[in-house]
Design a protein that fits this description.
Blueprint: E1 3-10, H1 14-21, E2 34-40, E3 51-56, E4 64-73, E5 77-82, E6 89-100, E7 105-115, H2 121-148
Length: 157
């Protein structure tokens, strides 16, 4: 199963990054990967056992991955696992870990996935790994740039 890890420096504290990252009402303000992001299955706030649906942009096929939070430690760590059956993915799980620094913080996103159909994994997984790493780096860098703006105002929104 392919694994990828991407680390990006953030200009604000882990608490601020975490708050914005898991605020689905504001997700599309900065997320370059998605065309839609919403909580599902009766979830009203991100947290352990909450579910969400994130739909990729049309240029990336518009694939929607619905996940359930399996870990949610505010300001520190969140992890999700896929609960739907979208095209191209038979398994998907991801985590994001936050660490404060003297100035700002570090966000490390790890993902694991398995492609489908099984007989095409040998071809799909290397291509998907490269694309997912690039898109994840791009979106985390977009998050960092968004948070660097004085007007981002994540706390108390």
């Amino acid at each position: 199963m392919p694994v990828a890890s991407i680390t990006v420096e953030m200009p604000v504290s882990s608490a601020e990054v975490f708050a914005l990252l898991h605020d689905y009402d504001r997700r599309l303000e900065w997320d370059t990967l998605l065309s839609s992001a919403q909580l599902t299955r009766g979830s009203i706030k991100a947290g352990k056992d909450s579910c969400s649906l994130c739909v990729g942009s049309r240029r990336l096929g518009g694939i929607g991955i619905e996940t359930r939070y399996v870990t949610f430690e505010e300001g520190r760590l969140a992890a999700v696992t896929m609960i739907n059956e979208p095209p191209l993915f038979s398994k998907f799980a991801a985590s994001i870990r936050h660490e404060d620094r003297k100035v700002g913080s570090i966000a490390t996103y790890k993902l694991h996935f398995e492609a489908k159909p099984r007989w095409l994994r040998w071809l799909l997984e290397p291509v998907m790994t490269v694309m997912l790493k690039a898109e994840t780096r791009k979106r985390l860098e977009a998050l960092s740039r968004f948070l660097a703006k004085p007007s981002h105002s994540t706390i108390g929104t």
